[in-house]
From TrEMBL, chain A:
<dbReference type="InterPro" id="IPR036097">
    <property type="entry name" value="HisK_dim/P_sf"/>
</dbReference>
<dbReference type="InterPro" id="IPR050351">
    <property type="entry name" value="BphY/WalK/GraS-like"/>
</dbReference>
<dbReference type="InterPro" id="IPR004358">
    <property type="entry name" value="Sig_transdc_His_kin-like_C"/>
</dbReference>
<keyword id="KW-0902">Two-component regulatory system</keyword>
<dbReference type="InterPro" id="IPR003661">
    <property type="entry name" value="HisK_dim/P_dom"/>
</dbReference>
<keyword id="KW-0418">Kinase</keyword>
<dbReference type="Pfam" id="PF00512">
    <property type="entry name" value="HisKA"/>
</dbReference>
<dbReference type="Pfam" id="PF02518">
    <property type="entry name" value="HATPase_c"/>
</dbReference>
<keyword id="KW-0597">Phosphoprotein</keyword>
From TrEMBL, chain B:
<keyword id="KW-0963">Cytoplasm</keyword>
<keyword id="KW-0813">Transport</keyword>
<protein>
    <recommendedName>
        <fullName>Phosphate-specific transport system accessory protein PhoU</fullName>
    </recommendedName>
</protein>
<dbReference type="InterPro" id="IPR038078">
    <property type="entry name" value="PhoU-like_sf"/>
</dbReference>
<keyword id="KW-0592">Phosphate transport</keyword>
<comment type="similarity">
    <text>Belongs to the PhoU family.</text>
</comment>
<feature type="domain" description="PhoU">
    <location>
        <begin position="124"/>
        <end position="209"/>
    </location>
</feature>
<dbReference type="InterPro" id="IPR026022">
    <property type="entry name" value="PhoU_dom"/>
</dbReference>
<comment type="function">
    <text>Plays a role in the regulation of phosphate uptake.</text>
</comment>
Length: 401, 240
C-alpha cells in the first residue's frame, strides 16, 4: 500500500467516525519544526490537531499546505527525509500549479519535481484536498511526498556503466579482433607466431575480464552508497583478514606486509572495508617495487578525531617513487591514471581508488593522501567509530594532507 | 464575533497573503535560476526557454505584492515589526524580480552559445550551484524569519565573488589562446556576471530580512571576495 493510499484510508476512517474520539480533540504536537513560520495567531492550526497527530503516525512523508501553498505542518518522516530542502520543494512553481488544479471536482493532483540544491533530488508529490469536516481553517491540502532520487541514481549508475564499459573495452577488443584476423590469414601456417599471438590474446582477454569485474564492483558500491552500514566491525580483525588475503600478492612481488593493529570496534561493512584496504595495499605494493629501495609496505591502525568525531584510521604506507602533487586531487576520479611509465609494469584501470572513495563516503569517513616524490606515499582512511545519521547526503570532501 | 477581532484577523490574513506572494515569487525565481544554469552548463534548450517564460508571472506578482503592501500601509498604519516587514517586502520583491530578469537573460544567452571550442564549464557549474544554494537559503530565511540564516547567507557571498574573479581570468585565457573563442567567451562572461549579480541581490534580501526581524541594519560594507588577500571582514553585530 502506498503512502497516499494509506493516508486516504486513514482520512476515510476518520470521516466515518471510526477513529477514537480522543484523536479529534487531541492536544497540540509538542514541538513546532523550526522552519514553520511562527505565526502569532495559531488557532487556525490547532483545530487540525487531530489530523496532524494522525499524519504523525504515517510511515510516509506528509505535509499540510494552505491554499496559497504555504507550509503549515510536516510530519516527522517528512522532516527526517527532506530536512531543510522541504521549503524549496513546497515553493516550486509546479507545486503551486498543482494546487491551483484542485477544486470540488478534482480532489487529487500530482507533481514531479527535480531539485539541484542542496543535493540532487527527484521528488513526487501527491496532493489531496482534505474534506471540509477535517479542515475548517484554510489548511485544505494534504501532500504525500516520495523521494525518487534513489531510483534515478540507479538508472544513472546503469547508464554510466554501459558508457564506461563500452568506452574502456573498445580498445582491447579491437586488438583481439586484429589478432584473430592475423591468425586466420597471414599467420595461419606459422605455429610460432600463433603461440605468441595467443599468449597476447589471453592477456588482453584477462584484462577485459578484470575490468568488467571492477566496473561491477564499482556499480554495486555506488548503489549501496546511500545506505549507512550498521554492523559492528573490529579493526584488528579487518587488518588480519587483509594480511591473509594479500599474502599471495605480496609474496609474488617479494614484499612482506608489515601490520600493526589495535582492537577498535566501529560501525561499518567488514567486506567493504577489507576491499578498501586490499585495493590500497595492492596499489602500494605496485608502487613499492618500482622504487629504487628495498620495497616496504605497512598497514597500521590508530585512533583519531576528525571533525569532532572519534574514529579509527587505517594507514597504508609505501616507499615507492611517490606521486607528484598535481595528480593527488584527481586520483580518485574513475579511469584517472598517473602518466609517467613507472607504474607501467602493472597497469591498472584507474578504478581502484574510485571504489575506495565510494566506500569511504558510504561510511561517512575521510580519505587523506600524502605523497613525497622520492620518499613514498601514505594513504589514510579514517572512519567514524559510530556513524550518525547524515543530515544531507552530501559527499564528504576529499581532503589532502 | 466582535468588530475588533474581525479587523485584526483580516489584517493578519492580508499579511499572510503578502507572505504567500513572496514565497511564490521566491519559488519562481529559484526555478528560473535553476533552469538558467542548466541551460548554460548542460546546453538544455527546454530549460533555456522556460526561464524567460516565467518572467511575466514574476513581474505580475511583484506588482500585486506592491499594491497589497501599499494598501496595508495606507489602511492599517502598521507599527514596529509589522511596518518593517512590509517595507522589507517592498524591497525584497524588487530584488526577486531583478534576480528573475538576470536568470532570464542568462537563459537567452544559453540559446546563442556555440560550445565546441573546448571551453571548460566546470567553474560556471560550481558558481551556479553556489548561487542557487544561497538563493534557496535566503528564501528559506524569508519564510521562517530566521535571522541567523540570513547572516549566514550574507557572509557566504564572498565565495561567489571569488569564483567570479577566477572565471574572469579563465575566460580571458581562453580568448587569448584562440580568437575564435571570443564570441562564446563574451557570452559566458556575461553569464558569470549575471550570476554574480544574482548573488548580490540574494545578499540584499538577506540584509532586508535581518532588518525586518531585528530592526537593525547589517554593516554597510559586506565581506567581499575576489579582491585580494588584504581585507578584514566587518564584524557582525551581536543582535539583542
Amino acid at each position: 500500500m502506498t503512502g497516499a493510499e494509506l493516508a486516504l484510508c486513514l482520512l476515510g476512517a476518520f470521516c466515518l467516525g471510526l477513529m477514537p474520539g480522543w484523536l479529534a480533540g487531541g492536544r497540540r504536537l509538542p514541538q513546532r519544526p523550526a522552519f514553520l513560520p511562527a505565526s502569532r495567531r495559531d488557532e487556525s492550526i490547532t483545530r487540525d490537531v487531530g489530523l496532524e497527530e494522525m499524519l504523525g503516525f504515517l510511515p510516509d512523508c506528509a505535509v499540510l499546505l494552505a491554499r496559497n501553498g504555504s507550509l503549515r505542518f510536516a510530519n516527522a518522516e517528512a522532516l527526517a527525509v527532506f530536512g531543510d530542502a522541504l521549503g524549496t520543494i513546497i515553493r516550486h512553481p509546479d507545486v503551486f500549479a498543482a494546487l491551483q488544479r484542485l477544486d470540488a471536482e478534482t480532489v487529487l493532483a500530482t507533481a514531479d519535481i527535480v531539485l539541484d540544491v542542496p543535493v540532487r533530488r527527484v521528488v513526487r508529490l501527491v496532493f489531496r484536498l482534505v474534506p471540509e469536516a477535517l479542515s475548517q481553517a484554510g489548511v485544505p491540502v494534504l501532500a504525500i511526498l516520495s523521494d525518487r532520487s534513489e531510483k534515478e541514481a540507479v538508472e544513472r549508475v546503469r547508464a554510466d556503466f554501459v558508457a564506461y564499459a563500452s568506452h574502456e573495452l573498445r580498445t582491447p577488443l579491437a586488438a583481439l579482433i586484429g589478432f584473430i584476423e592475423t591468425l586466420r590469414g597471414p599467420a595461419a601456417d606459422d605455429p610460432a607466431a600463433q603461440k605468441q599471438f595467443l599468449e597476447i590474446m589471453a592477456t588482453q582477454a584477462g584484462r577485459m575480464q578484470r575490468l568488467i569485474e571492477q566496473l561491477l564492483a564499482l556499480s554495486r558500491v555506488e548503489m549501496t552508497e546511500h545506505r549507512r552500514p550498521r554492523d559492528e566491525v573490529d579493526a584488528a580483525q579487518v587488518v588480519a583478514r587483509v594480511r591473509d588475503e594479500s599474502a599471495p600478492l605480496c609474496s609474488a612481488r617479494g614484499i612482506v606486509l608489515e601490520t600493526e593493529a589495535h582492537p577498535v570496534a566501529f560501525q561499518g561493512d567488514e567486506d567493504q572495508i577489507v576491499q578498501v584496504l586490499l585495493n590500497l595495499v595492492e596499489n602500494a605494493t605496485k608502487y613499492a617495487v618500482t622504487g629504487k629501495r628495498v620495497p616496504v609496505v605497512s598497514l597500521v591502525t590508530s585512533e583519531g578525531v576528525v571533525g569532532g568525531k572519534d574514529g579509527v584510521s587505517f594507514t597504508v604506507t609505501d616507499n615507492g617513487p611517490g606521486i607528484e602533487a598535481q595528480h593527488l586531487p584527481r586520483l580518485t576520479e574513475r579511469f584517472y591514471r598517473v602518466e609517467g611509465g613507472q607504474g607501467a609494469t602493472a597497469p591498472g584501470y584507474g578504478l581502484g581508488l574510485a571504489i575506495v572513495r565510494h566506500i569511504v563516503d558510504r561510511h561517512d569517513g575521510r580519505l587523506f593522501i600524502d605523497s613525497v616524490v622520492g620518499e613514498g606515499t601514505r594513504i589514510t582512511v579514517w572512519l567514524p567509530v559510530r556513524g550518525e545519521r547524515r543530515q544531507a547526503r552530501e559527499r564528504p570532501s576529499l581532503l589532502l594532507g | 464575533m466582535t468588530e475588533a477581532t474581525h479587523t485584526v484577523k483580516s489584517y493578519e490574513q492580508e499579511l499572510e497573503r503578502l507572505r504567500g506572494m513572496m514565497a511564490r515569487m521566491g519559488g519562481l525565481v529559484e526555478r528560473q535560476t535553476a533552469q538558467a544554469v542548466k541551460a548554460v552548463v548542460d546546453g538544455d534548450e527546454e530549460a533555456a526557454i522556460e526561464a524567460p517564460d516565467l518572467d511575466p508571472e514574476v513581474d505580475e506578482l511583484e506588482r500585486e505584492a506592491e499594491a497589497l503592501a501599499i494598501r496595508i500601509l495606507a489602511l492599517r498604519s502598521p507599527m514596529a515589526i509589522d511596518l518593517r516587514e512590509i517595507v522589507a517586502a517592498l524591497k525584497i520583491t524588487g530584488d526577486l524580480e531583478r534576480i528573475g530578469d538576470y536568470a532570464a537573460s542568462i537563459a537567452r544567452r544559453a540559446l546563442k552559445l556555440d560550445m565546441d571550442g573546448g571551453i571548460s564549464l566546470i567553474g560556471l557549474r560550481s558558481m551556479g550551484r553556489l548561487v542557487q544554494d544561497n538563493l534557496r537559503r535566503a528564501i528559506d530565511a524569508l519564510a521562517t524569519r530566521d535571522r541567523d540564516l540570513a547572516v549566514a547567507v550574507w557572509q557566504s557571498d564572498t565565495a561567489v565573488d571569488e569564483l567570479y574573479t577566477a572565471m574572469f581570468r579563465e575566460l580571458m585565457t581562453y580568448m587569448m589562446e584562440d580568437p575564435r573563442n571570443i564570441g562564446s567567451c563574451i557570452h559566458l562572461l556575461f553569464v558569470a556576471k549575471n550570476l554574480e549579480r544574482i548573488g548580490d541581490h540574494t545578499t540584499n534580501i538577506a540584509e532586508r530580512i535581518y532588518y525586518a526581524v531585528t530592526g537593525e541594519m547589517l554593516p554597510a560594507v559586506r565581506p567581499r571576495g575576489g579582491l585580494g588577500p588584504q581585507q578584514t571582514p566587518p564584524a557582525i553585530p551581536d543582535a539583542r
